[in-house]
Design goal:
The chain is globular. The protein is α/β, with parallel strands linked by helices. The chain is about 40% helix and about 15% strand. It is built from 22 helices and 18 strands. The protein has a six-stranded parallel sheet with strand order 2-1-3-4-6-5, sandwiched between helices. The protein has helices at about 5-15, 30-35, 45-60, 75, 80-90, 115-120, 135-145, 160, 185-195, 210-225, 255-260, 310-320, 330-345, 360-370, 380-390, 410-420, 430-435, 440-445, 465-470, 485-490, 505-515, 530-545; strands at about 20, 40-45, 65-70, 90-100, 125, 150-160, 200-205, 225-230, 245, 265-270, 285-290, 305-310, 375, 400, 425-430, 450-460, 495-500, 520-525. The mean pLDDT is about 95.
């Protein structure tokens, strides 16, 4: 068979369902090999969107998503998606084409050193120079993409190598079990927690795995230890539980940070340095148990006293089995913080102003989303509102990026979620700035006959940066822009366009869109005028008074 046929058979052996991408001339052999395979091509309108979709597939399934592009500009358009995957610890394999490597027919036209370009932002990058290398290099790309810590890998597949005749078969994946924590570290963790007075669980990005979620839920059930989450740890344990005391959406001085400061032992589960530190240890005598797949990256504000290194789910299970609830544990201050935070979050949820107040917006979205419904957030100031105010009930039902924190990923991520979970409600929530960075993928969603809701939060500006600008005391400058008529824009792609005319009309419109097949785009004006007051000065004052 041709090397391209073997490559596709290797993808089938890895369980690949979709390849997202924009093929070029150099990918035509691959395209022909895919035509009769079990792998479905998801043709996108931009390579960056294809990369975001592949990465989100990896995030949701634990299996590497695959995307494909041509050489030169096609490959360079993967750079942001590669960084998104690697920083966010999401498995993804990129395949890019290249001119023939054994003979040159067009000089240096479109040729860049893509392998070296990808090296700093991937776990593995390699140019295939022989068809005989296809099975082992494909297996290696998937192995490295999927093993802890997951991330992006890259293979360059030149035209002439695609055409080579080969007589090989795909390699099967080996059976691998992750290492588990040493018994002494488990015993030390149990001892620290037994002696603690105010233990607290802090759940981070690395804990967002199915088994870890189950084990942490069992621990909270048995021991009643309060927990808080980072932005990318949302939903690992049901946030509607009474033990949940808040999300570290803000950098400091929020209610949840007062609770963290009151803890004497923090179990930092799945801490990942790509997220902003949820607490600082410089002037705080707290003892920290670092529980993760990897040892702690120590810096001036993070130097844990104990590290429990190995499979997180297994470690939580063993600690839970050896630990009993202690009579001297005192969670009263944590409960006080939880109640005061709930009061603050409830303020403004019935505000009738239009443009819509953020608190009202988040509550109405939560009310129409089912327990397993998925919201995919682009990057903007609304991400903070949703992280703080939207209780996630299941893992990976709030897809936000607090690693690369790139704009433009919200719509493609929601589309990938829809392909993985066609039976769930899925909503992309995008600022007008982020939406326009990949808005062309509306055509892809319409062509694929997706049932999906796209909620555009329109403030006609880069709202996150305007908030920061105001907080710095700078005058408003350089961040306002115009927008198209989003209703007409949606309709031009064959989608359904809607406009929010009143606060009371938002929730019924969301319900109608979720209940009606097709792609629905909602233009929702939003009022961020109180961002600085509420998220900075007011929260600091009220949290300090606890």
């Amino acid at each position: 068979m041709k090397a391209s046929d073997l490559f596709v058979k290797c993808l089938e052996e890895e369980g690949v369902e979709f390849i997202y991408g924009v093929p070029g001339e150099e990918n035509l052999d691959m395209l022909e090999s895919m035509r009769t395979s079990n792998v479905k091509l998801i043709l996108t309108r931009h390579e960056q969107a294809a990369g975001f979709m592949a990465t989100t597939y990896g995030r949701l399934t634990g299996k590497a998503g695959v995307c494909m592009a041509t050489l030169g500009p096609g490959a360079t358009n993967f750079v942001t998606a590669a960084a998104y995957a690697t920083l966010g610890a999401m498995p993804m394999v990129m395949v890019t084409g290249q001119k023939p490597v054994k003979t040159s027919k067009q000089g240096a036209f479109q040729i860049l050193d893509v392998v070296d370009m990808m090296r700093p932002i991937t776990k593995f990058t390699h140019q295939l120079v022989s068809g005989d290398n296809v099975p082992n290099k494909v297996r290696e790309a998937f192995r490295l993409a999927e093993e802890e810590r997951p991330g992006a890998t890259h293979l360059e597949f030149p035209e002439d190598i695609c055409e080579e005749d080969v007589d090989l078969q795909p390699l099967k994946a080996s059976v691998v079990r992750r290492p588990i924590a040493e018994d002494k570290s488990i015993a030390a963790a149990v001892d620290m927690l037994t002696k603690a007075k105010r233990p607290l669980l802090l759940i981070g990005a690395g804990a967002n795995r199915k088994i870890t979620s189950k084990m942490l839920t069992q621990m909270v059930d048995k021991l009643g230890i309060p927990f808080c989450t980072t932005q990318m740890g949302k939903g690992v344990v049901d946030e509607t539980r009474p033990e949940f005391i808040g999300n570290c959406a803000l950098s400091a001085n929020d209610y949840v940070h007062r609770a963290i400061n009151a803890a004497d032992v923090i179990v930092n589960v799945g801490h990942d340095v790509i997220e902003k530190p949820p607490f600082f240890m410089t002037d705080h005598p707290v003892k920290v148990i670092h529980m993760s797949f990897n040892t702690a990256v120590v810096d001036p504000v993070y130097f844990p006293q104990l590290e429990v290194i190995g499979d997180i789910g297994n470690a939580v299970w063993r600690i839970n089995g050896a630990l009993e609830k202690q009579d001297h544990w005192d969670f009263s201050f944590f409960e006080h913080v939880r109640d005061k935070l709930a009061e603050q979050i409830a303020e403004g949820t019935d505000d009738d102003r239009c443009p819509i107040y953020p608190q009202r917006l988040v509550k109405d979205v939560r009310d129409v989303m089912h327990e397993d419904g998925i919201i995919a957030l682009d990057n903007g100031v609304y991400k903070i509102w949703f992280a703080r105010n939207y209780p996630a009930q299941m893992p990976n039902t709030v897809l936000l990026d607090n690693a690369l924190a790139t704009m433009g990923a919200g719509l493609p991520s929601a589309m990938a979620a829809r392909l993985v979970y066609p039976e769930r409600r899925v909503m992309a929530i995008c600022g007008d700035g982020g939406f326009m960075m990949n808005s062309q993928e509306l055509e892809t969603a319409v062509r694929l006959k997706m049932n999906i809701v796209v909620l555009i939060l329109r403030d006609d500006a880069y709202g996150m940066i305007k908030w920061k600008q105001l907080n710095y005391g700078f005058p408003n400058f350089g961040l306002d822009y115009g927008n198209p008529d989003f209703v007409k824009y949606a309709e031009s792609y064959g989608a359904h366009g809607h406009r929010v005319e009143s606060a009371a009309g938002l929730a019924p419109l969301l319900e109608e869109c979720h209940s009606t097949p097709g792609v629905h785009v909602i233009d929702c004006p939003v009022d961020y005028s109180d961002n600085d007051r509420i998220l900075n000065s007011e929260i600091q004052q009220r949290a300090a008074a606890l």
